[in-house]
Write a structure and sequence with these properties.
- By secondary structure, the protein is mainly alpha-helical.
- Helices cover 61% and strands 4% of the residues.
- Strands 3-2-1-4-5 form a 5-stranded antiparallel sheet. A two-stranded antiparallel sheet has the order 6-7.
- Helix 21 runs parallel beside helix 23.
- It is elongated and about 130 Å long.
- 38% of the residues are buried.
């Protein structure tokens, strides 16, 4: 598939939601770590935790997240990612090479599923691309689907995705399940009304619910159909969802209770409700929920059922302004409720009936333009004023941080009027790695809050900052992150070393520079492999580290003298002036004999050569200070150049008492040029 138009302009980038903009780099980093580190590595655990946490934020108001794959870009919600972003480009390339057309992640995806998906995608695409046989993965995960690269037939529309030719009702899995359900109910497979009339199926179901084997078969079909519809989109899927909703609404309450009691265990009941909550109309979801609640000795409290009744009413008949929000709230609440709540209803039956009638009363509509995000900050402010904390307060605090108002909270918490124990509670819930990731994504807006949390978190802030450093595309932000990480001291050294291997060159450069800024470098760290990197900047940082480590210093000098970058060569030269290993002489001579090397590098190499006090170096220096010998003329000093001055100064410093060198020094002392005379005294222009 050709590269997509890039969302590179300011307007297009602003259209990409922040939660997705933060999630995609984390996905790329996590996949990269899977290819580098073995399963069970601590860095993989933290990467999967961060990925799962951000994925929940992305899917909280979406039924699914669809990532289209091009050669070097991803397509998300109608926008292509920036092709110049190295992390996203690498992610798209990996998925493209695995022959994937898209990845679809549904609401409810668990951390274990994400971890398994990442391990699969980190496999070698050259030996077994994932897309070569997707049937292996069709039923492996409940909330993740791989889509083949049939781009010539891929249609992406608002909330809709269809692969290939439009399926006829008899071709798709969902259609076959519907026909099977109808046949199981009325025992007349192929009858026309089985496909077209949900009421006929409901009528037959009402009459045959006393048979346990029959009920079990119907439940199996309902589970399979609701699960398949969660993964299907398009005209046919919408038609089948509507039919299934009509079917449930026309089954009698007694038949539904019998179906849930006889035909399903507790786990199946919960799964049926959760799947239905994702695909069916709000009213049908509530009908099924009530039946399961009644059949399960009130596994779901009636008070919550009443609340959901009100949400369902608003989702189907409420004002347009709150209809969508009520629908999403209903489905998410049902999912969480079915998974976690197991209390009985404590209310008397008469009181229950009154409350159920009240729950169906329509509510007023909030005025247009009301900012609901202000409620969270108000709740936090009241908690600080009343010295009250609890789960509701911490939930509001999380929302405030996501909205980018952590600075407001910090100022309120630091108010002297707030009790010290309440302040400590708030700082404990603010100073978390998850909040640090959000704040770093909001910089420079939240810079002050980041500094405050860094002081309190210490090493706990290292992982989020290192993750941000890997994806930061702003030089100012990278410099700020490096400074903060450096303040954590030598304890961060092992974390930096763990992240080095296999990282992109720009990450390696930053990590090596950060290691070099530490007062102590881990004794077992070997920088030599990075001194051979293809990128000049990575080699430079590695050479700096080697020159600081006594056991690697000589090797660092030799490597730098053989580098093709003169800045790296100059690093080794400066270190060699203090003490040059004799094994570096060959590299020095190569530099001195290369006329393409700048004169200042030649002069520096001569100074280094002068520190090696051997007869061979003395003879070389003398030969390069005097003219060639002739039959009828004596040898003279060569014309003044930076190299000649460096040779004379090197002889004066290292061989002043040597008879062979003294002949050169006498000629220099008799020179009319003051620079030459200073060189004869061992003083170079840099020292003058």
């Amino acid at each position: 598939m050709a590269d997509l138009p890039s969302a590179s302009t300011t307007q297009e980038r602003a259209a990409l939601p922040r939660d997705i903009a933060v999630f995609l780099p984390l996905l790329g980093i996590g996949l990269h770590k899977c290819t580098v580190y073995p399963p069970g590595h601590p860095l993989l655990k933290s990467a999967f935790d961060a990925l799962a946490s951000h994925l929940r934020l992305v899917l909280v108001n979406r039924p699914f997240l669809l990532l289209g794959v091009a050669r070097g870009q991803l397509l998300v919600e109608g926008l292509a990612t920036d092709p110049d972003n190295p992390v996203l480009r690498d992610l798209a390339t990996r998925l493209h090479r695995h022959q994937l057309g898209a990845i679809k992640i549904f609401n409810g995806a668990e951390r274990q599923e994400i971890e398994e998906v990442m391990q699969v995608l980190s496999s070698d695409y050259r030996t077994k691309p994932v897309g070569a046989d997707l049937t292996e993965y069709d039923t492996r995960w409940e909330h993740v689907r791989f889509i083949p690269p049939a781009y010539d037939r891929l249609e992406l529309a608002e909330g809709e995705s269809r692969m290939g030719e439009q399926a006829t009702p008899a071709d798709s899995v969902a259609s076959r399940l519907w026909v099977g359900l109808a046949a199981a109910v009325v025992a007349r497979e192929g009858a026309p009304e089985l496909i077209t009339d949900p009421r006929a199926i409901a009528k037959a179901l009402n009459e045959r619910m006393r048979d346990p084997a029959h009920a079990k078969k119907v439940v199996d079909y309902l589970l399979g159909l609701s699960r398949e519809l969660r993964r299907s989109h398009g005209q046919e899927a919408e038609m089948l969802k509507e039919r299934l909703g009509q079917l449930l609404n026309h089954i009698s309450p007694e038949a539904l209770r019998e179906l849930a009691t006889v035909g399903a265990d507790l786990a199946q009941r919960r799964r049926l409700v959760v799947d239905a909550a994702m695909v069916l109309p709000a009213g049908a979801v509530l009908t099924l929920l009530r039946a399961v609640s009644d059949a399960s000795t009130k596994v779901i409290p009636q008070a919550m059922v009443r609340l959901l009744t009100k949400l369902a009413f608003q989702a189907e008949k409420g004002h347009q302004l709150i209809r969508e929000e009520s629908d999403l709230a209903l489905r998410e609440s049902v999912r969480q409720l079915v998974d976690k709540w197991t209390l009985d209803d404590p209310n008397p039956a008469a009181y229950t009936r009154v409350l159920e009638r009240l729950s169906r009363h329509p509510a007023g509509v909030a005025p247009q333009g009301v900012d609901h995000s202000a409620e969270a900050i108000r709740l936090v402010e009241m908690a600080l004023e009343t010295d009250t904390v609890g789960d509701a307060v911490w939930t509001a605090l999380e929302e405030v941080v996501r909205e980018g108002r952590a600075g407001d909270v910090a100022r309120m918490v630091e108010d002297p009027a707030v009790a010290e124990d309440i302040q400590e509670h708030f700082w404990t819930h603010l100073a978390t790695p998850a909040n640090m990731r959000i704040l770093l994504a909001n910089e420079p807006r939240d810079t002050e809050v980041v500094e405050l949390l860094l002081e309190r978190m210490g090493m706990a802030a290292a992982e989020p900052m290192l993750e941000s450093l890997e994806v930061a595309d702003n030089r100012t932000l990278r410099r700020r992150l490096l400074t903060r990480l450096g303040r954590l001291g030598p304890a961060i050294g092992p974390m930096l070393i763990e992240r080095l291997e296999g990282a992109p060159w720009y990450v390696q450069r930053n990590l090596l520079a950060l290691l070099g800024s530490l007062p102590e470098i881990p004794a077992d760290f070997n920088a030599a492999p990075y001194a051979g990197n293809d990128d000049t900047r990575v080699r430079r940082e590695a050479i700096k580290l080697m020159l600081r480590i006594p056991a690697q210093r000589d090797e660092g000098i030799i490597i730098s003298l053989g580098d093709d970058d003169m800045a790296n060569v100059r690093l080794g030269m400066s270190a060699a002036l203090v003490g040059c290993p004799t094994s570096a002489v060959a590299r020095l001579m190569t530099l001195l004999n290369d006329r393409r090397v700048p004169a200042e590098i030649h002069a520096l190499a001569i100074r280094v050569l002068g520190t090696i006090r051997t007869a061979a170096t003395r003879d070389w220096l003398v030969e390069h200070a005097l003219t060639k010998p002739g039959w009828f003329r004596r040898r003279r000093l060569l014309p003044k150049t930076p190299e000649t001055l460096a040779v004379v100064a090197a002889l004066a410093r290292g061989f002043k008492q040597d008879v062979t060198a003294q002949a050169v020094l006498r000629l220099a002392e008799e020179s009319n040029d003051p620079q030459v005379r200073r060189a004869a005294a061992g003083v170079t222009e840099e020292q003058a």
